[in-house]
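Reviewer comment 2.1 asked that we show a complete input and output for one of the modelled complexes. We chose the adenosine-5'-triphosphate case, as it is the one discussed in the main text.
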Amino acid sequence: MIQLTFPPSSSMGAPSGKSPKSTNEKDALSPPVDETDAFTTLNLGVWRVLLPKEIVSGGVISTTKQKWNSIVLAYPVVRKFFGQIYQLSPQLFVLLILLKLWGEVESVLVLYVSDRLLRIIEVGLTEGRPDVSAITQALIARLICVTVTAVTNWAREYISPMLEDRVQLHFEDHLLQAKLRLDMPTAEDGNSRSKAHAYDAWSAFNSLCAASLRLVGLLSQLAFISRQRSAGPLFTLIAMVRPMLTLVSERTLWLKPHVAYSDHPAYLRLQSLESMGQSRFRGDIIAGDIAGWITSEYHRARDALGNTVSQNVWSLYSIESTPINQILAEWAGALPTLYWAISAMMAPARFSMTSIAILQQYSSSLNHSLQMLFWDFSGVGRSFTEIKVLYEAAEVKNQIVDGDMEYPRPDIEKSKGMEIELRNVSFAYPGEKSKEAALRDISFRIPAGSLVVIVGANGSGKSTLIKLFTRMYDTQQGTLLVDGLPISEYRMADLRRTQATLTQDHKLYPLTLAENIGLGYAEHVKDTEMIMEAAKDGGAAELLEKFKDGAETTLEPMTTAFGYQLDDDKHKALKDVLTKLEKTTEVSGGEKQRLVAARTFMRFKTKKIKLLCVDEPSSALDPRGEFELFERLRQTGEGKTMVFVTHRFGHLTKHADIIICMKEGKVMELGTHKDLMAREGEYASLYNVQAQAFTEAEVANAAASEPLVAL
Ligand SMILES: Nc1ncnc2c1ncn2[C@@H]1O[C@H](COP(=O)(O)OP(=O)(O)OP(=O)(O)O)[C@@H](O)[C@H]1O
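Response of the prediction step:
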């Protein structure tokens, strides 16, 4: 049997997080409920659904009221949504709606024509003289109807993709902007990130159009049928019982405020293992020969999941605990047939076989339309939610609050470097996983224009310091001052304009090599001369010449090609086409670092940089490459504040005004190379182990042809 309760424990280990425990396992089909003051937790398969108390406690009337209120609340955003789609192309919008409308109106016309045809035939049969001309007219009318339907269907299929494309691109643009404005902590926080997709816009549009046009169709059918002598208003009213019943009793999560999550270990394990099929893991999986292990772990997790269902939470929620509502709905669906059957028995003189056939036709037509209406309306809540989620994506609140002060301040010389001061700063990354803070009670001051080298063991907090200097994160305790004022007071866009960073986390964009460099200074992204200068400074000039298309080469062109059912021999020509299509080009790790470094040199050309942060950008560079890069960065950043984080710090330390030596999130030592060596502490020991080995073995070799370094 399908398990809708959440298992209290599993062979995969205890659930993580502080979730309330399941209390009721007796009735597998009625979700157990955990009570807290503010919300109730339902355990549905692998999911936990947290619902506000007032939502759960209501009866049918209260639930219907809640649904109505949610619809009223969603109305402004739905109106905005339709307004925007209309603006994208008023002609296509109106045409598509009219074509869709025809599909609904047609059903009434068909009823009318069939009704007429049956009656003409009945009269003909009774009188023994069929009215050929009337029958022909009715048949022609029917033929015209189906022809128009065929044409409108074709036109709808023809026009629909045109509007769909515009809608898709419009909302892709909207979501792209929503993502681009996120700060680091918000972007990294999977729970507050929007789950909206651009394709939801089109499906929501279609589903809302279908539901409202279906309603129009149904109302016109009802208007037509209620005016027919054989049917009348009572018959029509009876036909409405079923949809009303289903609408009122429907269990849906879409319009309810809720939080849903899974902490089922086996389910989460399955998701992780399934994601290992992505191409980015291929190299490691092949090299480590772990495909077999992944498969067996997947099977183990699948077995551990057992009968606990993992389907989407909204479908699970809509499953009723008893079939009573469905039985009632089916009975209600049979009421119209029952009505005319009883009527015919009670007043046989009023009915002929034709009128019974017509009533039967009305009844099944109404039943069909009502079923479809119910089906369409069951998607309305979902569509409202999707539309709201689409717009809410642009309103996700950034965790870092922007300041409003201009930077650089008018009272401070623009060409000077940035002064940075930390006062009792402590910082822990968001999330509960790490037990210790990354930085603990740190205080120091970097005067404007200083050259700072930060050294220390892995995980000692070096990169975290840089992330605070560039306000990727905010301090949780203590203050970070920039030019004497808290960093939070400045406008972030102003601060960013004065900073250049170079880390090994920087990525190559899926754009041309020229753009990859030029985007360091977006306003000059087309300035070939400037780009070539930056490429030279970053050590990437030779790389650009290596490719057939030079700086215009795109390393990772978007691949859209696919072949299907191609036989090696029979479809060789087609296979050749597929093989020749452009493929991804790899560059080495060192070449990537050179391109990224060139982007930083391009950024310097804005002439606004006051702070340069360099965080181990050269791990893949050979000693000469690294030395040259650091030398050029140092010369380019002359007079600005420069902060270097590196493990191979030998050749930088002689220029450093301040060396900050970190250990376990704290500043252990601070001073010049000479001071710290004399102290014979942490820095001196790091220097002796790393810098000397590096300089003696590698730099000495590299410098054999040309003396590059003097420590
Ligand atoms: N995004 C993150 N989320 C959570 N913890 C993080 C994050 N980044 C770093 N940490 C943790 O913060 C601590 C300091 O990390 P940081 O990257 O600053 O060290 P580091 O001195 O630069 O190390 P390395 O020399 O290895 O680059 C480490 O314990 C690390 O695990």
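The CA atoms of residues 402 and 493 lie 9 Å apart. We note this here for comparison with the apo prediction described in Section 3.2.
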